[in-house]
Every structure is written in C-alpha cells, then in structure tokens.
Amino acid sequence: xSEIVEVFSPFSDDxxxxxxxxxxxxQIGDPVKKDEPIAExxxxxxxxxxxxxxxxxxxETFWNVDEAVEKNALIAKxxxxxxxxxxxxxxxxxxxxxxxxxxxxxxxxxxxxYSPAVRKLLAxxxxxxxxxxxxxxxxxxxxxxxxxxxxxxxxxxxVTKPTNSDMPSMMHKHSNxxxxxxxxxxxxxxxxxxxxxxxxxxxxxxxAHRKANKQKYADQAxxxxxxxxxxxxxxxxxxxxxKVNSRWHDDALEVFSxxxxxxxxxxxxxxxxxxxxxxxxxxxLMGIAKELQALTQKARNNSLKPSNMKNGTFTISNHGTSGSxxxxxxIINQPQSAILGIGKMQKRPIVVDVNGTDALxxxxxxxxxxxxxxxxxxxxxxxxxxxxxxxxxxxxxx
Length: 398
Known about the structure:
This protein is α+β, with helices and mostly antiparallel strands.
C-alpha cells in the first residue's frame, strides 16, 4: 500500500498575498526527495519554490503556468511507498509560443535544471546559460540571474538618421511583480493624502561607534551596517510616538504594540520587496544587525519566505544607498501610516557653536524624511517622531 501526501500553497487567507504559478520543476512520475523543489510560485514580492514534504513520487499536479493560484490551494500529490499509477494533469496547459533559438542543446542540458521562466528569458535573449553562475538552491540559475546578466553593457544599435516615426524601441512585458507594485502604489496615493517633513541628521556619533565596533561584530560573522543604527533609532522614535506605528480604519485607529519594521530592498531593476524585522523592539543593535544581514542575504539569493515579509507595521526606505540625497514623497506601504526615508550620507560644512562663536566644521550629514498619511498624523506627531529619531542618532551611546 502507498500513502498519498498532499502539497498545498504556503499562502493563507491571512497573508493577503496573490500568487501566480510559474513553473513545474518536476514532472508526473518523477521521484522526489524531501525538501527538493518541485514547483515555483511568483508573487508581487518574490519567486517562491515549493518543496516536497517527503520522499516519494510525484503523481498528480493541479496548476498550469501563469494561472492565479488560490490561497490554501492544493498544488500537487506525492505517493509514498509502492509506486502508484500517475494521473494526468487535470488542466490543459496553454499552447506555448514558438521561439527559435540557436543554442537549444544548451537549454536541454540534463545536468542543469531551468524553470520555464528562465528558459524563456534565455531563449528570447540568446543567452548561453553555461556563462551564468546560479544563485538559487544547488546553484540553479534563477530568473534574477538572467536579468542581472542582461544588464551588462551591449554594443549600441547603429541607426541611420532616425526620425520620430522610425526610432528603434523595445516592448518589455510587465512582470507580475511590477504590475502588483503599480497597483499597490496607485492604491496608496489614491486613498492616503501624503505629506512629507524633512530633517537633517549628523551621523558623526554612529560613524565613530561603527568604526570602533565593526571588527568585533565581524568576528561573530555579523555585518554592522548603518541601516542597523537607523532601525534602532526608528524603534526609539516609534516608542516615543506610538501613533506613527498604526493602521487607519474608517471607524478607529489601530495602534500596534509590536514594532515590525520593513526594509525596502531593490531587486536590480525588477522591482522592490520589503523584508520585515519582526518585533524589533526586543532586539539590541547586534540582534538588529544579525537579523538585517540574514534578510538581506535571503533577498539576494531569492530565498525569502512569505513569513519574512508579513505583518509589517512601519517601513524604512534607505534610498541613499543608491545615491539620492532626498526622495519625496516616498509612497506609503499600505496599510501602514508612514514611511521613513534615509538619504545619502554626505560630508558638508555645518555651522556650529564653539564657545559662543559660530564656526564651520565638516560633518557626515544626511537628510531624514517622514512621509505620513495625513488622515492619521499631523505635523506635530511627524516632527516629534523625526526629532526623537535625529536625537537618538546624534547622541548614540551603548
């Protein structure tokens, strides 16, 4: 006798996450090992692998590529024990588009597994997969690996005397992530009146502390980043002004006791995800730095789980890492009430009081902004939050 194990979508009704079926990594009749990836789902935030919960044989599948997957949906069935007769897929896959490529033998290399999404990108762009280094599980090539490779500079297209009517152009189909981001951002702007306040912060204290302690953290395999200090300062400011850590309802304001702080993380030019440091109020600087490092690595390896991105109550956009001094307004991550922006650190001459005399000194400065939902917060709470944040950063101490 054999036992049948059902594999379900990892998303539940509480997640509020929409997913699309992206690829089967195993076919009906294939043997599978426990924790081996058998399929991929794509959300607005991440491509997620579905892993086999046990050793066995894949006997039934339920979804086709590009179908919207329901929450708590049955994905597949695996037989444990005696071999079972595999059942045909219950839905007829859509007819694939015909694509002509020269390196078909490379894409069919049995020693390397490519999802349909990866195969499509490789074929459409004539990319040799043997020239890529995979960042997925077991060094598998992911969609992000191909997109990153395609950003390498190419020889410019030679066009003879172009006019407005014959200028060369390319159409790029929107990814599910980009479409979901567009919907989310448009919704946020349409329901929340955005107002931004800007303060300036002197980063001398945290710069000195980081220089003195970076090696001690490195000895424990922890990267002490400036973002860790910004998260710690956010915890202090949210504790002082709790209403910033809230959600608007038509009949009441829900103020959260837990500080689940999301960190906006760019995925090259593909989109943006927001991994969340859960219960940041319970962590010291080292705990924040450790958790931040783990989430960043997962984001880069495309291995974030839904649990890593849920229940956020406040978001930080550290846009200065890509060079901008100020960004406004930063769109609020609904249903949150505010979002913090951190600009690029820049050494600037600042007027300070030295024994009653004005003097110019060079200090590492950056602009700190808070964009609020004006239904929830006013200028008083906004400026109070920023004042506490800046004070915490400028007077940093262990």
